[in-house]
């Protein structure tokens, strides 16, 4: 079995799990289907995978023999991916006293499941630490036994009850033992009781401990209002019988909760069922189950599209308003920083949803790089109220004539944005409201004060240009003495420092430069005489290096933003072929998805390109592209 990550947004990812002769696109919801029932047509048509119960099937001798003779796919009448559960939930619900782990594993092997499960031992949240610890020891024993005999991929399930220490211990065990699919179980009661903050607090730590190279399954997660947050945190597959359980109780699933069908007068959904049947007819359990599953499937499609288009954060923030406890969970995740290395450096846009959007890692990364990597080059700070686009030809001409004036823009939520960084993500690509709440105004003031404190030593004078600000004099730029400046070079140097680290701008652009500009006067390409150094990405505002520019950095930056490869593929990379993760030997740990990176072996620079994986993922993944190569050194010589 092989897992490949293909796209990423926030901590969430789209990928593909390749089994022996079947594939499953992730993230994926996997409906629970009873083993004695034919897979309904609406499931076979709309879902790539199902999960059924190996314990229930094994317990019926007649049906067991049929499944062993036909194989699970023919027996279930389903040609997609089939997972099996081991009966752990039956133990949890006291519906099975003892299940023989080895017999279940061998049975899963014989019927040819695509992914099976060993008998993990869930612990009720009312139980003590000692009981949870005892259950976890049994889970570990069963896991080792499964790995020794199984011929099919096995889900390594994290247990440990409500105890964080045990959950983390279990996650480290699963990671160390090498299960092909990681899983987390025993959290259904937390979901049912809306304990979302506690649940996602446990899941955050578990996710941090599990390998990035393996898909992660979340047992029992089957409500649309929770799914987007679970994917956002980096979980890949989910199973539940919720669609049927809710239908049996007369409950109608919506994206924002559930409602009792007997209390409804209108159907707010436009699925095939709701479009063709009345409220009264939906009291039929089978019809209601079909509607419920449609809503879950629709949410998964929406999540995939959000990852693909780079707006997963926006979707999660909107979905979190479905329940106050979900907002608590999202705030908790945003406060944590340990997984931020997984978030892409930029995306198409930053759309503000509410004040919780201010906690996104995109904003955190901007301020982190601004305060650590940027330094003003001019001594007179003049603040201007912003309107996008920040800078046009007239402003550039002013900055050329008044070389000591550092024009910077006052804009929410960034506080003060220096003119050199007005084109980069997320500054230029963001959309915010014009009317602010009290909290948003306080946030803005905090950011302005922080900028002035951080860069106080760089400025001799501070003024405002087109507005009044207490304690700061308002001026016109023309009142200052003229001194020639080069704002375009200053912008390039500052962007390079922001993108690669302090000193990169000087290495790349402290020379006589020639520019090719677009139709609106913006720099598109930068040349050192006849050698192209870099291009400016029109969407992100970041630099895309040429191999000439990459060489300049490589000679001076000693491994920064560099990926080192197996020498056996050196020539292929030098010829411009993409770099695959399995050939990566080491990578600068600060590399994030979409970072501009250098590729080298132990002797020379080979190529440059854009990272498709973070540094840690490059080292862990066994399949997939690590870097999309833009140009190899051999290309330069052609």
Task: Explain the overall architecture.
It is globular, with a radius of gyration of 28 Å. With 638 residues, it is of the alpha/beta class. The strands form 8 sheets. Strands 4-11-10-9-8-7 form a 6-stranded parallel β-sheet. Strands 25-29-28-27-24-26 form a 6-stranded mixed β-sheet. A 4-stranded mixed β-sheet has the order 17-16-15-19, with helices on one face. The relative contact order is 0.07. 39% of the residues lie in helices and 21% in strands.
Question: What is the 3D form?
Answer: globular
| Low-pLDDT ranges | none
Report how far the terminal alpha carbons are from each other: 40 Å
Helix % is 25-40%
Main structural class: alpha/beta
Enumerate how many helices there are, as a single number. Answer: 25
Residue fraction in strands: 15-25%
- Total DSSP E strands: 29
User: Order of strands in the sheet with the most strands?
Assistant: 4-11-10-9-8-7
Q: What summary fits the major beta sheet? A: 6 strands, parallel
Rg is 28 Å
What is the averaged pLDDT score? 94
Features:
638 residues, alpha/beta, 6-stranded parallel sheet, 25 helices
């Amino acid at each position: 079995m092989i897992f490949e990550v293909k796209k990423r947004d926030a901590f969430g990812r789209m990928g593909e799990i390749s089994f022996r002769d079947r594939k499953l696109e992730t993230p994926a919801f996997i409906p629970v289907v009873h083993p004695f029932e034919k897979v309904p047509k609406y499931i076979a048509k709309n879902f790539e995978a199902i999960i059924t119960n190996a314990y229930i099937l094994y317990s019926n001798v007649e049906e067991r023999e049929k499944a062993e003779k036909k194989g699970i796919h023919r027996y279930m009448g389903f040609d997609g991916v089939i997972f099996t559960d081991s009966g752990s939930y039956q133990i949890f619900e006291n519906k099975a006293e003892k299940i023989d782990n080895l017999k279940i594993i061998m049975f899963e092997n014989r019927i040819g499941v695509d992914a099976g499960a060993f008998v993990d031992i869930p612990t009720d949240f009312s139980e003590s630490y000692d009981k949870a610890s005892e259950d976890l020891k049994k889970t570990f024993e069963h896991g080792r036994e499964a790995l020794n005999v199984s011929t099919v991929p096995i889900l390594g399930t994290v247990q440990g009850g409500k105890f964080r220490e045990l959950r983390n211990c279990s996650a480290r065990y699963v990671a160390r033992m090498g299960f092909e699919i990681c899983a987390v179980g025993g959290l259904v009661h937390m979901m049912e009781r809306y304990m979302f903050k506690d649940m996602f607090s446990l899941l955050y730590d578990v996710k941090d401990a599990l390998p990035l190279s393996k898909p992660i399954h979340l047992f029992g997660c089957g409500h649309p209002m929770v799914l987007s947050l679970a994917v956002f945190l980096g979980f890949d597959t989910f199973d539940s019988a919720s669609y049927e359980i809710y239908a049996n109780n007369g409950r109608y699933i919506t994206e924002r909760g559930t409602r009792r069908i007997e209390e409804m007068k209108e159907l707010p959904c436009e699925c095939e069922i709701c479009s063709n049947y009345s409220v009264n007819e939906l009291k039929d359990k089978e019809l209601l189950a079909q509607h419920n599953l449609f809503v879950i499937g629709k949410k998964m499609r929406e999540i995939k599209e959000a990852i693909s288009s780079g707006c997963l954060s926006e979707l999660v923030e909107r979905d979190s308003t479905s329940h106050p406890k979900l907002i608590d969970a999202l705030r908790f995740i945003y406060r944590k920083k340990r997984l931020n290395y997984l978030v892409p450096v930029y995306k198409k846009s930053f759309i503000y949803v509410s004040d919780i959007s201010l906690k996104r890692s995109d904003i955190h990364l901007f301020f982190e790089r601004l305060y650590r990597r940027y330094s003003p080059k001019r001594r007179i700070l003049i603040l201007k109220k912003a309107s996008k686009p920040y800078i046009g030809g007239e402003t550039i001409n002013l900055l050329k004539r008044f070389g000591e004036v550092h024009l910077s823009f006052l804009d929410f939520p960034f506080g003060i944005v220096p003119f050199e960084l007005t084109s980069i993500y997320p500054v230029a690509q963001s959309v915010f409201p014009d009317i602010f709440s009290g909290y948003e105004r306080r946030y803005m003031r905090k950011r302005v004060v922080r900028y002035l404190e951080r860069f106080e030593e760089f400025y001799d004078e501070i003024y405002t240009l087109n507005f009044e600000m207490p304690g700061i004099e308002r001026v016109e730029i023309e009142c200052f003495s003229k001194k020639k400046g080069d704002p375009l070079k200053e912008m390039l140097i500052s962007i390079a420092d922001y993108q690669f680290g302090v000193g990169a701008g000087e290495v790349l652009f402290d020379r006589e430069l020639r520019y090719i500009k677009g139709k609106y006067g913006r720099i598109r390409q930068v040349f050192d005489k006849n050698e192209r150094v870099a291009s400016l990405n029109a969407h992100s505002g970041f630099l895309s290096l040429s191999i000439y520019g990459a060489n300049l950095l490589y000679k001076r930056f000693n491994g920064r933003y560099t990926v080192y490869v197996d020498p056996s593929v050196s020539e292929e990379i030098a010829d411009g072929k993409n770099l695959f993760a399995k050939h990566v030997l080491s990578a600068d740990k600060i590399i994030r998805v979409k970072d501009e990176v250098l590729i080298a072996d132990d002797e020379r620079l080979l190529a440059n390109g854009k990272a498709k994986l973070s540094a840690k993922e490059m080292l862990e993944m066994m399949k997939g592209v690590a870097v999309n190569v833009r140009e190899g050194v051999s290309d330069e010589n052609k």
